Task: structure prediction
Amino acid sequence: MYILGISCFYHDASATLLKDGELVAAAAEERFTRQKHDTSFPINAINWCLESAGVGIADIQYVGFYEKPFLKFERVLSQHLAMFPLSLKTFLSSLPAWLTEKLRVVKIIKKRLKYDGPILFVEHHLAHAASAFLVSPFARAAIVTIDGVGEWSTTTYGLGEDNEIHLMKDIRFPHSLGLLYSTITAYLGFTVNNSEYKVMGLAPYGNMDRVSNEHYQRLRHVIDIKDDGSYHLDLSYFKYHWADRMLGNKLCTLLGGPVRAPESELTERHKDIAAAVQLILEDVLTRILHHAYKVTQCERLVMAGGVALNSVYNGKILSQTPFKQIWIQPDAGDGGTSLGVASYIYQTILGHPRNYTLRSAYLGPRFSRSQIKEYLDRGGIRYTEFATDAELIERTARLIYDNQVVGWFQDGMEWGPRALGARSILSNAGNKDMQEILNLKVKHRERFRPFAPVVCADDAQIYFECDQPVPEATDFMLMVYPIKKERRKLK
Amino acid sequence: MIKSFGYGFKEGIKLFGECVSTLINSLLLFFVYLIGVGLTSICARIVGKKFLDREIDERESYWNELDIRRKSVAEHLRQF
Result:
């Protein structure tokens, strides 16, 4: 039985193909169109999934969609009804897309894929929960999902057991931890739904002390956090629920200045604000996780939603909460919901037992040695062909040791936003100038942006203050640990 | 030359059509917003109906009951 999962029309369109519950292929549309966070119908990703499995659309028994469009539209209409007449501009700009695309999902799928079978719709956060739990190594786990917004939910928790998922409680729009983080992302001059990871990367350069960081104290006025981790935002500081801007002047006044112009200098104040929002996110998440543990009485945790990509906080979960084990899938954001909806259909709706654990992120397009060789020959590109892997590795290690930068390409393309050694840039982590060299000369981006050092799992404790055993989610670059003090000196 | 003129003319007409369509759509949507959304919103305010929970208050918890469990295939065929 083949099941196709689809996620699209918001951000990070993707497709996943399951065969009898096992993942055959998964890819994001952006990897084919070269448009970051491509939202369009993932026709290229779907075609590639079908092609790689050697099947046609006639072989697909079910297509799953990652949200319930009418429920989401109800929320959008509610926003306009609540905010009339302020929301006129967004009504005029957003409604055409609803009428031509988002409310016509069935027609679009049937037309674009020439598909006549059933199309099943699963709530957005349920798709997140399924993507986290049903392909995890755990038979029973607490589930926490947090993102910007789905239909109504922005944060949920529940329990997964075998092939069943019970989502118990939620926090609803317009209160959203993800949107708070995105608002500060916008305030710091970065793009929303794209550059939240830059704020996470900038935070450690700021003051991470809750008492002395004045912006943390100020931002605490924006959010009311209860002991059980539930929260509401003071919406007088925000505009995202009715305008095409994230924040209002009141928030600028609170943070002591206007929105930072993109590409302008990042001051200490900006770094402290990034630190402040990261600290608030950590405050809320820690309380939510304590509460989820108390309710579920389960020591294993799975997480999904864009906020679950906050690898800095993920690295603190096992030391700051009662959970003993954690698992996060490589594409925890919206892209991953195509996997969630497909797995949910096979295992939960149709009632098949779980038979697949996601252990590898290399699920995307791959190319054979002969295909690569043909491409290089056709383009007249100079290359050296190594006779053995040992020879290739020795040469690469020497290049890295000599502070050269290596573009590393192998295996299937990564599933999710992180480069995990299949399409990666390799360089010497022991060289103190390397971060700047890579950021400015190779990646042409801000100098503060971090890179992940790679070590064997057995050596992790030598270099990092990390959990033992090292959680599997570290394989997907989803957990950040501090480097041990004695290892921080670079040459 | 004629071919390129034809192509340019066709593209121009297409663009003009899109502009007219955007204008008409915006006008129609404006009236929908004013009459449909506006009147409903005003009536709702009079009767005290709230479409968004925007309050920060003294309640013990902000968690809402969700209780999503396994449902039948038929339930998932619906978009709501």
